[in-house]
Here is the input.
Amino acid sequence: MATYTGNSEGTTTVAFCDTLGSPPVVTVIVVDGQSVAPSQNSGSVDVVGVPDPEFTYHAEDASGNYNPGDGNASVSVAISLSETDNSGLGAPFPNETQGFSMGVSNGSEVFPTAVNLSLPFTADFAEDSLFSNGWTVGVVYSFAGGNTLPFPVQTTVLSIDYETGGSMAGDEDGATVALTWDDGLGSPPVANVVVVDGGSLQALFDDGSITLNAVVTVDFIRGDVNGDEKVNIADGIWIIYELFLNGPTSACPISRDANADGFVDTGDAVFVFNYRFLDGPEPSAPFPDCGQETDQTPEDCATSFCG
Here is the structure.
């Protein structure tokens, strides 16, 4: 068996000959001390190139809700990395990576506020930059080469926090914001590459998006269970009747959590009584003015005195 080293892709012919060597070596078979020229069949060799490692950057799809009254929303987007399995083409798989750099641009409806790295170890170098229209990050696992990472399956390597900063105020239609892999962010620009064996490989891209949903929520006053713009004994009695005596249900359920502990129980009625008659603490915001809780949903309050 002969072994050949391919210098370039393509097909070449291999054939027996009598001209190689000095002096030339003749192709013969020795039988009973006599050399006999054998029948000869030429052949061919296909040289197939082995592809370089291929990595894909994925920006996941995410969604967030906002109230058109203030237009504020916060959303976190996962960023992941995967390698294409080209072992069937003769390429090694998976490959150990030594680091990566990334950059993603975003629409004007949102801006990034934080880059949160998620690796199984603390990288020797990890620096990010935030811009109004995107972010960049560069990561070296280990300067001494002690840490490497393969990506045989899609794996989250970081998450990005975004905020609207009130940009959706007055917009009741919502929006979809494109998240696009971008090699032009930063100065100098940061390229989207993965480092393998000290060399940088351009990544493939899977863009993502943020869907912003308009959700109208109602202002309320904490403890004003019966919706009369007051917090008094009647509200404490209402809570007891609703919980234990088959009384009417408040149109603004979140207002019943007078002590703001996340539950509705007798503790809320006692809190109201203590506030009104025993110099107890007053309810926390929203109180005494109308307002809302963070992450409030439409189901939390259908109607109230506030609107």
Summary: The two ends are 88 Å apart (CA to CA). Residues 10-47 form one domain.
